[in-house]
Design brief:
The complex is a heterodimer of chains A (about 500) and B (about 110). Helix content of chain A is about 75%, strand content about 0%. Chain A has 21 helices and 2 strands. In chain A, strands 1-2 form a two-stranded antiparallel sheet. The radius of gyration of chain A is 22 Å and the shape is globular. Chain A starts with 6 loop residues before the first helix and ends with a helix. The model of chain A has no long low-confidence stretch (mean pLDDT about 90). Chain B is about 65% helix and about 0% strand. In chain B, helix 1 runs antiparallel to helix 2 and helix 2 runs antiparallel to helix 3. Classes of the chains: A mainly alpha (about 500), B mainly alpha (about 110). Chains A and B meet through helix 6 and helix 7 of A and helix 2 and helix 3 of B.
Chain lengths: ~500, ~110
């Protein structure tokens, strides 16, 4: 029992409720939401310290022992993702201060942001499948509100599609849980794992596993990502940064959790399906990233590629590849947030989102240019930077298990990432700009630059200090490799 | 009994999917609410429909029906109610601003 681990969920929830009462006072709202995220980062650090020292921490809600009550579980994987989420969210929040606009700030932008955080963090920490569904809904409903906030025609149109897809996938989620409850009679994840192990995951349980895969793939944009590029190009940049960094990763987390904890007995079947989906995602995402000439779409397809890359680690499912998956997931959340923030600055500086009409930005914004360039190298996985250690472990895991095809696709997808983003760099920063007469230099608000630079330092720090980071992520992957550690921690007397 | 329920749920799913694949926005929303009906009935059915008293301890019966799925359904109903009402208002707003409820015309070109 450890009451600390509900704090990451509780803090944003309380903050959001308080912020609702301060609707017109945007300055106060900004301060309160920033302070709340900072406090939450401290609580996440405390949790990580405890998990590192004493192993997996659990909290039985209301004192009801599992499987009867709802249990919150903080293993290293969940705790690290909570911290990463909060750091990425803090960056996006700082960036949002002046960029989302006064109108949106007055109409509950910050409360929605905090509710979104509550949903994301709850999904990471919960140990109960239905509770995870509820946290998903908290996250999704806030995301509907954030994506449509502002109410331009494009936003209305794309939100209709986004909401429809998510209603469908939530319906399927409930259906999958109905089947699972009907088959094994429990919804606590540790208990589920035991029951599924007793039943040897035959017949119907494989069908249910695939149903869960479809649900989480829809949320994460793994192969079923057709809704993502359109929906993620309509809201303001600060919102896209939150979505690109957090939302798809929650789907991935749920997928990794279910397929390492519950449905890991028939890997020959389920993990082969995941492998095919991951390969298709990387290829299709790569094609999309190369094909388009407007910046939001290029960045969105890069999100898709990285989802495929992380799923590839799950498909291989050895110690090496799961190590790599955790490392890469953490890197990717931070780097994607930074990528969208820098992308938003580029669009604002150039006054257009079409690559063809940009050019010559390096003279006016050298800092922005070189930060973007180094970020591209980090995303591709050039050695001293943060994308490298995760990628190496993933590739080593893939080759070690004899998945040569899949590993080949994964490595090739890195080249497509490089090509698509370097094209943005060369187009926006290097080329002379004949179309537009010298537009005057845009003054950035301090907060936007602070957030970009802070996340940038983190991307570099994660790469340089990867040995130290690995001492934590290694412990996270231990639980994923051996689910009995998790089960014992949750169901102990 | 479960068999008949399964058939009814199957019909609800089929009609829901058919409606979601249609052009008009209102039919799509109706389709999603039929789907959620189907899924709630499914939750009730898969937990077995054995006869027993309503799960109230005052009944003092020999056996009760399973109370857990009922709690799950109740949660899911209010969630889908919230989402559906948001969806309706969104559709209304979209109709006002965009002047159409035809999904074909709501495509938009990727280049705007």
């Amino acid at each position: 029992m450890n009451n600390l681990i509900v704090l990451p969920l509780l803090i944003p929830l309380v903050t959001a409720v308080v912020l609702i009462f301060l609707q017109k006072k945007t300055k106060v709202q900004r301060w309160i939401s920033l302070v709340s995220v900072s406090i939450n980062i401290v609580s996440a650090l405390l949790i990580i310290g405890q998990v590192k020292e004493k192993g997996i921490q659990t909290l039985y809600m209301g004192g009801w022992l599992p499987p009867y009550g709802i249990v919150f579980v903080a293993d290293m994987f969940a705790a690290l993702l909570v911290l990463t989420t909060l750091v990425a969210a803090a960056g996006c929040l700082l960036f949002a201060f002046r960029t989302v606009g006064d109108q949106r700030e007055k109409y509950y932008f910050y409360p929605f942001f905090q509710f979104l955080l509550a949903g994301v963090l709850g999904s990471f920490l919960t140990g109960d499948l239905f509770n995870m569904f509820v946290c998903f809904e908290v996250m999704l409903i806030s995301s509907y509100a954030l994506i449509v906030l502002g109410g331009t025609k494009r936003q209305l149109r794309e939100t209709l599609k986004y909401i429809l897809i998510n209603i469908l996938s939530s319906t399927l989620f409930v259906a999958a849980m109905a089947y699972l409850y009907g088959t094994v009679g429990t919804l606590n994840m540790a208990h589920l794992s035991l029951r599924v192990a007793e039943a040897q995951q035959a017949g119907i349980l494989n069908v249910i596993a695939i149903l869960f895969l479809i649900v989480f793939a829809l949320k994460a944009g793994l192969f079923l990502f057709f809704w993502l590029p359109g929906s993620y190009s309509v809201p303001p940049t600060a919102v896209i940064a939150v979505f690109g960094a957090l939302l798809t990763k929650v789907g991935l987390y749920a997928m990794i959790r279910t397929f390492t904890l519950i449905f890991y007995h028939d890997a020959g079947f389920t993990h082969t399906v995941i492998a095919w989906m991951a390969a298709a995602t990387m290829i299709l995402g790569g094609l999309g990233a190369v094909a388009y000439k407007d910046l939001p779409r290029i960045l969105n397809y890069n999100v898709v590629i990285s989802v495929g890359f992380i799923a590839f680690g799950l498909a291989v499912a050895t110690k090496d590849s799961l190590d790599g998956t955790v490392l890469y997931l953490i890197h990717d959340m931070i780097a994607k947030a930074l990528m969208f923030i820098l992308g938003g600055m580029i669009i604002a500086a150039a006054g257009t989102n079409k690559l063809n009409e940009m050019g010559g930005l390096i003279k006016k914004y050298p800092a922005l240019g070189w930060m973007f360039f180094i970020l591209v190298l980090a995303l591709v996985g050039i050695p001293p930077l943060s994308g490298f250690p995760g990628k190496v472990l993933l590739v080593r895991g893939g080759i070690g298990e004899g998945h040569f095809w899949l590993t080949g696709v994964a490595v090739a997808s890195s080249l497509l990432v490089l090509y698509s983003l370097i094209r943005v760099f060369m187009g926006a920063f290097w080329r002379e700009d004949p179309l537009l007469p010298a537009s005057e230099k845009k003054k950035w608000h301090g907060a936007a630059y602070v957030s970009a630079v802070a996340l940038f330092m983190l991307v570099i720090g994660l790469g340089l200090g990867s040995e130290w980071v690995y001492s934590y992520t290694g412990q996270a992957a231990d639980v994923l490799v051996d689910p009995s550690i998790y089960i014992e921690a949750v169901l102990k007397e | 009994m479960e068999l008949y329920m399964a058939l009814a749920i199957g019909v609800l799913f089929a009609v829901g999917v058919y409606l979601i694949l249609s052009k008009s926005l209102l039919r799509i929303i109706l389709g999603t609410s039929l789907l959620t009906h189907g899924v709630h009935l499914l939750l009730l059915t898969t937990a077995n429909l054995k006869t027993g008293a309503a799960p109230l301890l005052g009944e003092q019966a020999e056996s009760y029906v399973d109370p857990l799925p009922q709690a799950l359904i109740l949660t899911s109903i209010v969630i889908s109610f919230g989402v559906t009402s948001f969806f309706f208002v969104l559709a209304y707003k979209a109709y006002q601003r965009l002047g159409t409820d035809d999904m074909e015309e709501l495509r938009g070109n990727g280049d705007e």
